[in-house]
Amino acid sequence: MDHELHTSEEIKTVENVEKKLREEAKLLLAEKKVDVLVGYEAGTLPMTATPCFITAPEEADRLVWNAFCVQNLAKFVQDLISLHRQSQQRVKPEARTRKVVGVVARGCTTRSLVIQLQERQFNRDDIFVVGVPCGGYVDKCKVAARVAGQEIREASLVGDQLSVKTAGEAKTLPLGEILADNCLTCRFNNPVISDLMIGSPAPAMAPESEYAGVEAHEKLSLAERWSYFEKEMAKCIRCNACRQVCPSCYCPVCFAEQSQPQWVGISEDETDTQVFQIMRLYHMVGRCVDCGSCVAVCPMGVDLRTFLKKLDKDVFELFGNRAGSSLEDLPPLSQFKEDDREDFIYDPQKAK
Amino acid sequence: MSENQAPSSWEPKIVAIVCNWCTYAGADLAGISRIQYPPNVRIIRVPCTGRINPFYVVKALQAGADGVLVSGCHPGECHYLTGNLSARRKFATLKRFLSYIGVEGDRTMFTWVSASEGERFSQVIKGVTEAVRALGPARNLVKQL
Description:
The complex is a heterodimer of chains A (352) and B (145). Chain A is an alpha/beta fold and 352 residues long. Chain A is built from 14 helices and nine strands. Chain A has three domains: 1-137 and 185-208, no CATH class; 140-178, no CATH class; 211-345, no CATH class. Chain A has helices spanning 3-8, 10-30, 74-88, 107-118, 140-146, 175-178, 181-184, 212-218, 222-235, 241-245, 270-282, 293-297, 305-319, 348-351, and strands at 36-42, 49-54, 63-64, 101-105, 127-131, 152-158, 161-166, 170-174, 196-197. Chain A is globular and about 70 Å long. Chain B has a single domain, classed as Rossmann fold (3-Layer(aba) Sandwich), CATH 3.40.50. Chain B has helices spanning 23-32, 54-62, 83-101, 118-135, and strands spanning 14-19, 41-46, 67-72, 108-112. In chain B, helix 1 (23-32) crosses helix 4 (118-135). The radius of gyration of chain B is 15 Å and the shape is globular. The N and C termini of chain B lie close together (9 Å). Classes of the chains: A alpha/beta (352), B alpha/beta (145).
């Protein structure tokens, strides 16, 4: 491979990765190393990329890799494998087939895969991770704000510039200004596990400021924090899109739909929505990789990240664990240490 | 809840979720030793603090509890060896998270009371009741319908 292209110019790197990805995908499918490859293809609207499932080498040219690829594909890996396993349950043991799911994975996707592996959703050899370096993805809301909410007719990425055309005007926006918040402060923009790495590692983002939003929020008074939570959750229409898209939300029956016991009320009372959100957010302790999929799909623009990031911060502060960063580590709530911090324990002697 | 609306006659309602082996026995000891503690507490007995789903706490708050107390065996004394150690991690994050979203920290309390600590049980209940009384009736997260 032309190595200078990887390092010298950003533009060629991204296109190169895409080209290389297609070549490798063809090989993987032709050699039957994977039965299906989960990747991204161009969406039907400008500035979109949709998840796609490639099963034949000749389809591999549909694959794309660019800054419009938003969704965390680990969700589909778990879906495909669990569906396949279900389908094999009634098959005679000698007739059972194995299915290897390949996945085009950026840093956060691999972290989600690590979490699913830690939680024994599948075996390491059930998946084939095609790692890609990631420079972050475009936050559509930020672009919309820059073009005053007009419909975007055309969009193209050239290097680190995004050119958009609306009905009235054409604009060029630097990528650095329109990347999603979670991408800007991403700590793991290169895959943590991979069977095949495409392209050279992406340059680091700015992880040192990843908790800046949380720290600012912590400084607010209790009443301000509550009113912010109330305001954000009042937007929620409980469409469950955040749950559907989250790679860590794979329970066959979600607590939100359980009726015995009924965890979450179905009334219009705002506390039912708040409790749903608290419970879903709390399920993400040590399991949220900050991929931003839930934020990207939320039709109401609920600020979930402020709350998810807090859980991430606490888990790191208390237990020194970063979700999905290592295959050897156990999930933080599945383990304990004898000397875990106890400062929150109520002591009647000290309270006096 | 309706009685929360009348501040003059308001008394805090506290849900105490306690483990069968230590704190419940500790409460029993407080009872047979005739140690007084406030009647504001409603005790729910569970096998182990490790069995407590953190949602119980959230659910109790939504159902109108002014405070929730979770209490189990001291670390290292769990009947099931490590249930309370797993619980400790859950509640450390839960307490921080609830206070982050705007539920007062003193509404969710976690402590350890062993089977021989009847006196401590009474002190805990007194302390928690006073702390919750100081906060007043719960408003946030309480279902009104």
